[in-house]
Each structure stands twice: as C-alpha cells, then as structure tokens.
Specification:
It is a single chain. It is globular and about 55 Å long. It is an all-alpha fold. The protein is 72% helix and 0% strand. It is a multi-pass membrane protein. It comes from Chiropsalmus quadrumanus.
Length: 222
C-alpha cells in the first residue's frame, strides 16, 4: 500500500506540474515581442505536454511522451537554425514581417515550424497534442484536458499572428521597425537539406505516424 500511495502522490504532482507548465507557458507568451522569450514560454508549455503522459505511470506513457518530444524538436530546430543563420542575437517577432518577399523558401519553412508548434493541422504538431490529450481522456483526468484544450486554442492565436506577419504583413506598414526587418539571402545546400528534412518530418508524420510509433515502441520496450 505504501508503494501505491507513493505512486499516486508522484502522479498527482506530475499532473499539477503539467497544468502549471501549460498555464504559465501559455499566459507568458501573450504579447511577447522578443522571439527568444516567446520560444522560451512556448517551451514551458510544451514541457507540460511531455510530462503529462508520464503522470499515468503506464506502459504507454513513455511512448506518448517521446512521440510528442520527437514531433516537437523539428520545429525548434528549424526556428533555432534560421535564427542562427541570420545571426540574430535578440530577434524581434516583428522582424520577420514580410519575410516571404525576401526568401519564400525560408518563409515557408519558418511558417510551417510555427504552425506545427501551435498544434495546427495538417502538421504533425497537431498529432502530438492529440495523442497526449486523448490519453488524458482515457485516464479521466478531465480537468487537465480542459486546461490543455482551452490554452492550446488560446496559443494558436499567437502562432497565427507570427505566420500572418511572415506571409501577409506589408513591410511598408511598419516603417517604425524598418531597421529591424530581416532580409534573407540564399541558403547553402547543407542548410537547405537540414531544414528540408525537418519540414518533411513535420508534414509526413501526420500522413502516416505508424513507422515513428513503431520505432518508439521498439525503443521503449525492447
């Protein structure tokens, strides 16, 4: 009974950390102008989704958490890679306004990364959140499901705002920020390959997630 009690306590604490991570990350990202702070708060929220399945202490918990993490990483790699390539030390979100007019390949890649981070279909980030929330429903932790769904919908607006800036914002509308606007030159072949592979993962997994699921299950249970 003592072991069972300890498991229940750990499970409840993980659920609490999950809820707090999603709340703090989602609220903290509101109206952020700095890309780095936005990604940091977004990461806090995503950590909550990674911890959530682990709270159930079940055989499938690790698989769901790792699946979510694998889905999450390509988007971070793309955003970090492009930011590093542009040599931006303190990038502002508004700096990406009208990026599609400078380099449509980079704009498409960056937009896909933000949409996937937001869990917006048809990108794989949606599938990661769906699996985690579905497991929460199966284990009847409806209060965490409610928090996750409400704040996931809320954060979608943040990511759509960035995508709107990248694709649809006219640079002439933000003359005050003109010195911060980014102009992107052509990428090298290795850089294009790295970004292309990550975008492929973001797009391909949702069409057929089972190869990735099988690999993760083999890794967890072999």
């Amino acid at each position: 009974w003592l072991v069972v009690a300890k498991v229940v306590v750990v499970s409840n604490w993980l659920l609490l950390f999950t809820s707090l991570s999603i709340l703090v990350g989602s609220i903290g990202a509101i109206n952020q102008s700095s890309l780095l702070r936005f990604i940091a708060y977004s990461g806090i929220s995503h950590i909550g989704f990674v911890l959530w399945p682990l709270s159930y202490m079940s055989s499938g918990s690790w698989s769901v958490s790792i699946f979510y993490l694998v889905i999450y990483l390509p988007s971070v790699v793309v955003i970090a890679g492009i930011t590093s390539y542009l040599n931006l030390k303190s990038p502002l979100i508004v700096s990406f306004s009208g990026l599609i007019k400078s380099n449509y390949v980079v704009a498409f890649t960056l937009g896909a990364a933000f949409l996937s981070l937001g869990g917006i279909p048809p990108l794989s980030g949606f599938l990661g959140k769906w699996f985690v929330i579905q497991q929460g429903i199966n284990y009847h932790t409806y209060w965490v499901v409610f928090i996750a769904v409400v704040f996931s919908v809320l954060t979608v607006s943040y990511y759509l705002r960035i995508v709107k800036l990248i694709y649809f914002q006219d640079r002439g509308d933000i003359l005050t920020w003109s010195s911060s606007l980014i102009t992107v030159s052509s990428l090298s072949r290795p850089q294009s390959i790295v970004l292309g592979v990550n975008v492929f993962i973001m797009v391909a997994v949702i069409t057929n997630p089972f190869p990735l699921i099988n690999i993760i299950n083999w890794f967890c249970y072999s």
